[in-house]
């Protein structure tokens, strides 16, 4: 049996990943492809527990290990078994989120993060990563952040700018496995560009 394909949606805040994901899954299903939709951190009971723990103000490495724990569980419990059965998986965030947020955003060592991602996932790499790219000012506005909100202050904005830069660097470094989609476009245009990349995997 042919292994399923592993597709990941990445991007900063308010890029519309969670709106796009079920639409791509529906298009694949309409072509007869079995698809599992999942998300990080989450997708397993361990992951949902990690989401609760992440509400605390955490040391950056403590936060990293929680994301990694959720990722290890999701990979073992959901992603690998599905792929092995020929089912495709679309995941809202994966290892690149840790590189972008904890690495580029918080300044943790990228080499160490890459190593830990590899350990947590058994070096599982997505077949395709779709980067939904948007100016963080617009992304945070879409997410409903209020003026004066800590998440939109100058410091928070600088953090999200670093995350965006990180994602763009990761995308540019792997043009054969990543595609950048301008998430400021209307949803139909975003969906169409993302679908072009997904449909190429059907060939
Ligand atoms: P989301 O469900 O809205 O995508 O939120 C998840 C948040 O967690 C988002 O702010 C990004 C962050 N995150 C990291 O900082 N590192 C990670 O490895 C992952 C998966 C998410």
Descriptive labels:
203 residues; alpha/beta; Rossmann fold; 5-stranded parallel beta sheet; 55% helix; binds thymidine-5'-phosphate
Description of the molecule:
It is a single chain. The chain is an alpha/beta fold. Helix content is 55%, strand content 13%. It has eight helices and five strands; from the N terminus they run E-H-E-H-H-E-H-H-E-H-H-E-H. It has helices spanning 17-30, 45-53, 60-84, 95-105, 110-121, 136-142, 154-173, 187-199; strands spanning 6-11, 35-39, 88-92, 128-133, 178-182. A five-stranded parallel sheet has the order 2-3-1-4-5, with helices on both faces. The protein starts with 5 loop residues before the first strand and ends with a helix.
Mean pLDDT score, rounded?
A: 95
Give the % helix.
40-55%
Small molecules bound = thymidine-5'-phosphate
- CATH-level-2 architecture: 3-Layer(aba) Sandwich
CATH third-level topology: Rossmann fold
What's the alpha carbon Rg, rounded to whole Å?
16 Å
Run of helices and strands: EHEHHEHHEHHEH
Beta-strand content:
5-15%
Flag low-confidence runs: none
Class derived from helix and strand content: alpha/beta
User: Can you identify the CATH class?
Assistant: Alpha Beta
Find the CATH superfamily: P-loop containing nucleotide triphosphate hydrolases
Number of strands: 5
Brief write-up:
The protein is an alpha/beta fold and 203 residues long. Helix content is 55%, strand content 13%. Helix 1 (17-30) packs across helix 8, helix 3 (60-84) runs parallel beside helix 5 and helix 4 packs across helix 7.
């Amino acid at each position: 049996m042919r292994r399923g394909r592993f597709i990941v949606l990445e991007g900063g805040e308010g890029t519309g990943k969670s709106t796009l994901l079920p639409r791509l899954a529906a298009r694949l299903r309409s072509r007869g492809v079995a698809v599992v939709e999942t998300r990080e951190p989450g997708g397993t009971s361990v992951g949902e527990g990690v989401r609760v723990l992440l509400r605390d103000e955490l040391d950056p490495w403590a936060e990293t290990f929680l994301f990694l724990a959720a990722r290890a569980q999701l990979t073992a419990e959901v992603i690998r078994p599905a792929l092995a059965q020929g089912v495709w998986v679309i995941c809202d965030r994966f290892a690149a989120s840790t590189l972008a947020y904890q690495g580029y955003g918080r300044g943790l060592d990228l080499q160490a993060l890459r190593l830990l991602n590899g350990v947590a996932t058994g070096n599982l790499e997505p077949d395709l990563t779709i980067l939904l790219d948007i100016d963080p000012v617009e992304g945070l506005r879409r997410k409903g952040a209020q003026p004066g909100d800590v998440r939109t202050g100058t410091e928070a904005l600088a953090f999200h700018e670093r995350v965006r830069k990180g994602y763009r660097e990761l995308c540019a470094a792997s043009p054969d496995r990543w595609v950048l989609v301008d998430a400021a476009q209307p949803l139909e245009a975003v969906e169409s560009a993302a679908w072009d990349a997904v449909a190429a995997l059907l060939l």
